[in-house]
Specification:
Protein name: cAMP-binding domain of CRP or a regulatory subunit of cAMP-dependent protein kinases
Distance between the termini: 46 Å
Keywords: Kinase, Transferase
CATH architecture of the domain at 4-122: Sandwich
GO molecular function, one term: kinase activity
Strand content: 15-25%
Number of strands: 8
Organism: Lutibacter agarilyticus
Largest sheet: 4 strands, antiparallel
Pfam family, one: cNMP_binding
Length: 190
């Protein structure tokens, strides 16, 4: 049985009839992910789009020097994937790792693409979600270019308390684009 959280998320983003919603949800499969387990690793091809039911994930890259750079976190009621790898079926530059024991629903690429044809509301759903994601990325870029590290930290803690409570300072610093030591200084001054 598909979790009601997924159905609520879908219907708040696009209009689905009850029949369409039931049909669409049949294509998702459930997966338990243990803390520190990878859902996707750099070099693999992303063959899924995921919806988080419980837990928290970190989506990040590792550069040539071994530094981790966090793009975003995905907690309960968030979607996750590597869109470039998923859409182009190219090797991923991203890692998706569970930060806590997590539960996730996944849909594979072939099913998602065929559902675009059979249920037009699916295409609208993912278009709306893509637009919202693009707005969020744009706002984050603006914050990164116009706010101090302290302001970005305060914004993150205030706007994502459920994620901030599940991650460590090193991961927060990676997301903010600052060193762990600099984050410690910011926290001491607060």
């Amino acid at each position: 049985m598909i979790n009601n959280l997924l159905k609520e998320n879908i219907t708040k983003n696009a209009p689905f009839s009850k029949t369409e919603l039931e049909e669409f949800c049949k294509y998702f499969y459930f997966k338990n992910i243990k803390k520190t387990e990878f859902l996707l690793e750099q070099g693999e091809i992303c063959k899924f789009e995921g919806f988080v039911l419980e837990g928290c994930f970190r989506i990040f890259t590792i550069d040539k020097k071994g530094n981790e750079n966090t793009l975003y976190f995905a907690a309960k009621d968030w979607w996750l994937m590597d869109i470039d790898s998923f859409m182009n079926q190219s090797t991923s530059n991203l890692n998706i790792q569970a930060l806590t024991d997590s539960k996730i629903l996944l849909i594979n690429r072939a099913d998602k693409l065929s559902l675009y044809e059979s249920i037009p509301a699916v295409e609208k759903l993912f278009r709306v979600m893509s637009q919202k994601a693009l707005v969020a990325w744009q706002r984050r870029l603006i914050r990164n270019n116009s706010q101090t590290a302290k302001e970005r930290y305060v914004y993150f803690i205030n706007n994502y308390p459920n994620i901030a409570s599940k991650i460590n300072d090193k991961q927060i610093a990676s997301y903010l684009g600052i060193s762990h030591e600099f984050l410690s200084k910011i926290k001491r001054r607060n």
